[in-house]
Design brief:
It is built from seven helices and two strands. By secondary structure, it is mainly alpha-helical.
Length: 208
């Protein structure tokens, strides 16, 4: 079998499978469950790199494989899933098509650009990345659920489309964002947990 098999990619694969659950839930109109799956994708992405770095014996090809598989799974989790979610929530209207199209297009551009930058960084023997160029696509996991809840509260699902269009634009905007470490990761985890509670309590109000 082709590929590289070790424990460092298991969490990434679990996130990928969660995205499938999120897509299926959105198609069936269960937006609450879809948002929960989306948050699971976010939590998986938050810690898969930490787990990968614990294996000091990985070959260089295994490391490169991990980078590529992470980006491919990010495309499914934080681009395809949010795009399908918006189309299912708002219907195939012009605004939702624009939102979904921008989420996917900006996401794939950003992920491809990131992969090129990683290759260049490796060739130049640079240290660990300290800043993100643009908003990471993984931020969708923390942006979309509150956006959907806000739209439900206002009785206007189009609000979530507008928010996601702005987020998609930020994916490819040259704005530097410090990469969270230590306390930053704990803060992101706390925010994600708070959003999860909100989704569990109020997620049922999100409907077409």
């Amino acid at each position: 079998m082709i590929g590289y098999y070790n424990y460092t990619v298991v969490l990434t694969y679990l996130g990928l499978l969660s995205s499938l659950g999120g897509v299926a839930s959105a198609i069936n109109g269960n937006f609450k469950l879809s948002m929960i799956f989306m948050l699971v994708c976010g939590f998986a992405d938050m810690f898969d790199g930490v787990i990968a770095r614990t294996d000091k014996k990985r070959s260089e090809n295994a490391k490169r494989f991990g980078v590529q598989i992470d980006s491919l799974c990010d495309m499914a989790c934080f681009c395809c899933l949010p795009a399908v979610f918006m189309l299912c929530l708002c219907g195939c209207c012009a605004l939702s098509l624009i939102a979904g199209g921008m989420i996917m297009l900006s996401g794939v551009i950003r992920l491809a650009y990131f992969n090129v930058q990683e290759i260049c960084r490796e060739l130049e023997n640079e240290g660990r990345r300290e800043y993100y160029d643009g908003l990471p696509v993984t931020a969708s996991a923390l942006i979309l659920p509150p956006a959907a809840l806000l739209g439900a509260l206002l009785g206007a699902n189009w609000v979530s489309c507008v928010i996601m269009i702005i987020a998609a634009a930020l994916n490819v905007t040259r704005v530097r964002i410090k990469k969270p470490r230590g306390k930053g990761i704990l803060l992101m985890l706390s925010i994600g947990s708070a959003i999860c509670v909100l989704v569990l309590v109020f997620g049922g109000k999100v409907a077409v």
